[in-house]
Amino acid sequence: MKAVVQRRYGSAALGELPVPVPGRGEVLLEVRAAGVDMGTWHLLTGKPYLVRAVGFGLRAPKSPVLGRDVSGVVTETGPGVTEFEPGDEVFGTCGGAFAEYAVAPVAQLARKPAGLSFAQAAAVPISGGTALQGLRGVQAGQRVAVLGAGGGVGSYGVQIARALGAHVTGVCSTGKVDLVRSLGADEVVDYTVADFTGTYDLILDCGGNRRLSLLRKALTPRGTLVLVGAETGAPLTGGFERALHAAALNLFVSQKLLPLMSAERGDVFDELRVLIEAGAVTPAVEREFPLSEALDAVDHVHSRRSRGKVVVTI
Ligand SMILES: NC(=O)c1ccc[n+]([C@@H]2O[C@H](COP(=O)([O-])OP(=O)(O)OC[C@H]3O[C@@H](n4cnc5c(N)ncnc54)[C@H](OP(=O)(O)O)[C@@H]3O)[C@@H](O)[C@H]2O)c1
């Protein structure tokens, strides 16, 4: 099969590999599309080095194929699998989605939402799941700010917060204002013109470049700051130190300062399927790249030019 093969951090190329064999609790997928996000760039480069230490392979990538977000058709089931059968259309995550075939654990899969293309479905799992988990506990009528609202996680954050009945302010750079408005934000702040002001019950921070003290000033006394990610470029921790600082400070303040580590689970993807089928959430796919241009897709996301989601189609 064709696959974007990655034997070491920092380089990958289209190559040929044998079709993998599903083990216990796994299925073999004929991949139709694979999502791209900042995490794909982190796994390609092995930077910041912290990503290597959290289970993706210290010296070399554990998965010889790049890509995690996946949609496709089940072609074979491994021992013990009762949840899916050949022919089922699914979406979720796996190790090695940039390939014609991939093996995925059933615990990381859900049925593809009715009415979505495979490309749209592959844009959902990691970004949508992260936004959903970051917005847990939001009540109707609360004020929510989404920073980085025109990015992958943020584009779901705006829609999910709206679906929960919150008043949503999306914060982004100029080129993403139209997108964020179209996603249903009640207010859109172009931070190149004016920084966002106001008082929020929850801030979902997907941009990661504002100081904690500034963010805390924009929260109610019992408000919640969810730190999704930061791209400071620091080679060792890549901005994670801000999350550690927040976790320590959280012990001493009335506000909740919560670094998020989202889980890739089929039940989370099922919740997203329900929101999508109800019409509350639609993946904002900006661009599709063929498998042969998968690395260009990763570059496009890393360049910060992407709006919403980017997908590789197989
Ligand atoms: N905690 C978790 O479990 C988890 C899960 C998924 C992703 N993440 C992390 O969360 C962050 C957002 O992910 P994403 O997939 O939404 O990324 P994305 O699609 O690139 O969106 C991030 C947005 O943040 C803004 N931004 C600010 N500074 C940036 C910088 N130096 N480089 C790139 N973008 C910058 C950009 O918006 P403007 O152009 O409007 O400034 C961009 O649209 C990333 O750091 C990612 O690694 C964490």
TrEMBL record:
GO terms for molecular function: oxidoreductase activity. CDD domains: MDR1 (cd08267). Transmembrane segments: none annotated. InterPro entries: ADH-like_N (IPR013154), ER (IPR020843), GroES-like_sf (IPR011032), NAD(P)-bd_dom_sf (IPR036291), YIM1/Zinc_Alcohol_DH_Fams (IPR050700). Residues 10-312 form the Enoyl reductase (ER) domain. It comes from the Bacteria. This is NADPH:quinone reductase. It comes from Lentzea xinjiangensis.
